[in-house]
Design goal:
Length: 209
């Protein structure tokens, strides 16, 4: 049975444009595939472990072929548990609002926690990195309130999309679908852009599984 994991990086609840688009996407998934299991993972719910000195020590120990011990072992277990929750799905929906031209820090924290040797990637001194996540598919909802393609540099730049999609491909996931909502909210084009984005979300969802 297909399992879809919705990973939300927006803390804005009902006020979130990205979560509203995700809701449209998931509603369409349920219409076309009622048996699909959908799990919600709010990165802001307090369950995401930190990635500090103990976790970094564990990662370097594993890189060296050693077993983490003590506090490092506890941090490593937390990272593995988070990865396993992620890896249990084969389809993903990410909601990614733009923060300061990039992604929210909580999403970067999630990436840092699960991007571990032997889990997300392998490494060879001669060949470099190899992504270990195969056969998975991702949909990403990107939103931004000021930045938009074709706008002057004073309206910002996009380090959100290239960063996140480079990470996905680095993990081995290259089947990526996207929905963009990038109106200039200070102008009158937002309602039209919003309708188009929700229409795009419905269309993407119907072909996603």
């Amino acid at each position: 049975m297909t399992k879809l994991l919705h990973i939300s990086a927006s803390p804005r609840g009902e006020r979130s444009e990205s979560l509203a688009l995700a809701g449209t996407f998931l509603e369409a998934v349920r219409e076309v595939s009622p048996t699909t299991e959908i799990e919600e993972y709010d990165l802001w719910d307090g369950t995401l472990p930190s990635f500090g000195s103990d976790a970094a020590a564990a990662k370097m120990a594993v890189f060296a072929g050693e077993q983490p011990r003590g506090a490092a072992a506890e941090a490593w277990s937390a990272a593995i548990a988070t990865f396993r929750r992620f890896d249990a799905a084969d389809r993903y929906l990410f909601t990614v609002p733009m923060w300061n031209a990039g992604v929210p820090y909580i999403l970067k924290q999630f990436i840092d926690v699960i991007s571990q040797p032997g889990l997300v990637f392998g490494f060879d001194p001669d060949a470099g990195y190899t992504g270990l996540l195969h056969g998975k598919r991702v949909a990403v909802v990107y939103t931004s309130a000021v930045y938009g393609p074709g706008r002057a540099p004073a309206f910002g730049a996009d380090f959100q999309t290239p960063y996140f999609e480079d990470w996905l491909r680095w993990t081995g996931i290259d089947d990526i679908r996207t929905v963009h909502f990038r109106p200039n909210l200070a102008t009158a084009d937002a309602p039209t852009a919003r309708r188009l984005a929700h229409s795009q979300a419905r269309d993407q969802a119907k072909l996603f599984l």
